[in-house]
């Protein structure tokens, strides 16, 4: 059973299918944002780019590429060109996962000769502050909460 799953995960048929599904998803997201000011908008992010199935496609790509490196013994000297191609896809997808889960995305306008320590986040947040009726060391206690929201007119 495991051998059958491995054969499917490392097959070139799966690679081709993943490329087609990935291209169709990317094209759909591009056409969804065709008349918008910025790209991608919250609409296409929520419906395509930030979904579990889109990330699943990329995860299957990584599994497929690593499996094909082992299956076709691409570490041999005469196959280094193909190895570099497969590894480049793996590193690009790994970088996309790092960008998605570890980094921040936004804008930092800096004029020539100036410095800046703040940036405008891509995310829109609603800040809620609740102030308590009690004091600790002459400071009023308060709780702040930041919730990310999308105010796209095409989303509920």
General description of the model:
It is a single chain. This protein is of the alpha+beta class. 51% of the residues lie in helices and 18% in strands. The chain has five helices and four strands; from the N terminus they run αααααββββ. It has helices at residues 2-9, 12-32, 42-49, 52-71, 80-101; strands at 106-107, 120-121, 124-136, 139-149. The strands form two sheets. Strands 1-2 form a two-stranded antiparallel sheet. Strands 3-4 form a two-stranded antiparallel sheet. Strand 3 and strand 4 form a beta hairpin. Helix 2 packs antiparallel against helix 4 (52-71). The model has no long low-confidence stretch (mean pLDDT 87).
Top keywords for this entry?
156 residues; alpha+beta; two-stranded antiparallel ribbon; 4 strands; elongated
Walk me through the topology.
Layout (H helix, E strand, L loop, with lengths): L1 H8 L2 H21 L9 H8 L2 H20 L8 H22 L4 E2 L12 E2 L2 E13 L2 E11 L7
Antiparallel strand pairs: 1-2, 3-4
Helix pairs in contact: 2-3, 2-4, 4-5
Task: Write a short abstract of this structure.
With 156 residues, the protein is of the alpha+beta class. The chain contains five helices and four strands; from the N terminus they run αααααββββ.
Largest sheet: 2 strands, antiparallel
The sequence of SSEs as H and E is: HHHHHEEEE
Helicity range: 40-55%
Number of helices: 5
Structural class: alpha+beta
**C-alpha termini separation:** 44 Å
Strand arrangement, major sheet? 1-2
Ranges with pLDDT <50 over ≥5 residues? none
> How many β-strand stretches?
4
Q: Which descriptor suits the 3D outline? A: elongated
Q: Rg to the nearest angstrom?
A: 23 Å
Q: Please report which band the strand proportion falls in: under 5%, 5-15%, 15-25%, 25-35%, 35-45% or over 45%.
A: 15-25%
